[in-house]
Amino acid sequence: MSELLDVRGLTVSFKGVPVVDAIDFSVPAGGSLGIVGESGSGKSMTSLAIMGLLPKGAGRAGSITFGGQDLAELSDRRMRAVRGDRIAMVFQDPLSSLNPYYTVGAQIAEAYRAHRPGVSRRAARAAAVEAMERVHIREAGRRVDDYPHQFSGGMRQRVMIAMALSAEPELIIADEPTTALDVTVQAQILDLLTEVRRDTGAALVLITHDLAVVSEVADELVVMRKGKVVEAGTTERVFSDPRHPYTRALLDAVPRIDDSIGALRTTGGGE
Ligand SMILES: Nc1ncnc2c1ncn2[C@@H]1O[C@H](COP(=O)(O)OP(=O)(O)O)[C@@H](O)[C@H]1O
Ligand SMILES: [Mg+2]
C-alpha cells in the first residue's frame, strides 16, 4: 500500500452519538489533503483520533493505518513515539501551545533535544536558530531569546511550525493554523506550509472551515458535514465541478478576485 495515512470507517462518538461518522480518506507519502467543513463538523475530532489524543469518554471505531501500521493496535508508549517522531501537529492558537515563561528558543531547542537524545544544549540552541531561519523569522539569532508574547500571531505560528519540523515528521496535521490570523499573514503561513512540504517531503493534512485556505495548498479535498464526508476529490475537481449542494454553498462563500474587480468597476473605484 502506497498510502502514508489510510483512514477507513473512522467513527468517533460521545455517549453513543457519532460526531465523526464512518469517514474514509487517505494521504499518500508527501501528499496534501484538505479537510473542510463548518464548525462542529468533526474535523478536530478526526485529527485527534489520528493522533491518539481523543478526549476521555470518546468512543472510537474504524481503522487508522499509518505507514502500514494500525495505530489502534499500538501500545500507548509506541503511539507516543509515533506522535513525537513521525506525526506532528500545528494548532490554531500557538499562544496556548507555547509556555509563556520560557523563551521561544528554549522551547524549540527542547523539542529538538526530545528527538535527539544526547545532543548538547549548545547544539540544540544553534539548531533552534537555524529552525527559526528556516521558517523565515528575521534576526533569528537575536529573537531566539525573546518570549512568546514578544512575537506577533503569525510569527508565533512560524515558531510552532519550526517546532513541528524539529522531529522531521512524515506527516504534519495543521488544524485551523491560520484561522486566528489576518488575511495577509494567513497567505504567508500557507506559503510556508507549502514550502515546508516541498523541502522536507512531509505530507500535510490541512484542516479548515475556509475553502479559500485549502485551494492553494491541498491536492485533494474532503468536505465534511455533521460528521460525514459529503464530497471528496482533487481540489481542482471540487472547485471546478462541485457535486454536493453543501460544497457549492461553501464555494459561494469564497470571495473571488474577479468579483472584487467587478465590484470596483461597478462602483467606479480606483478613479
Ligand atoms: N468532549 C466532548 N463531549 C461531547 N461532544 C463533544 C466533545 N468534544 C467535541 N464534541 C462535539 O463533537 C462535534 C465535533 O467537534 P469538532 O471535531 O471539534 O468540530 P470541528 O473541529 O469541525 O469544528 C461537535 O458537535 C462538538 O460539540
Ligand atoms: Mg476544530
Describe this structure in words.
Strands 6-7-8-3-9-10 form a six-stranded mixed sheet, with helices on both faces. Strands 2-1-4-5 form a four-stranded antiparallel sheet, with helices on one face. The chain is globular and about 55 Å long. The longest helix has 18 residues, at 183-200. The protein has helices spanning 43-51, 76-85, 94-97, 104-115, 121-134, 140-143, 153-165, 183-200, 211-215, 235-240, 245-252, 257-267, and strands at 3-14, 17-28, 32-36, 58-66, 69-70, 87-90, 171-175, 203-208, 220-225, 228-234. With 271 residues, the protein is α/β, with parallel strands linked by helices. The protein has a domain at 91-166. It contains twelve helices and ten strands. It is 42% helix and 25% strand. The N and C termini lie far apart (59 Å). Strand 4 (58-66) and strand 5 (69-70) form a beta hairpin. The model is unreliable at 267-271 (pLDDT under 50). Adenosine-5'-diphosphate binds at residues 14, 19, 37, 39-45, 55. One of its GO terms (cellular component) is plasma membrane. Keywords: ATP-binding, Cell membrane, Membrane, Nucleotide-binding, Transport. InterPro entries: AAA+_ATPase, ABC_Ni/Peptide_Import, ABC_transporter-like_ATP-bd, ABC_transporter-like_CS, Oligopep_ABC_C, P-loop_NTPase, PhnK. This is ABC transporter related. GO terms for molecular function: ATP binding; ATP hydrolysis activity.
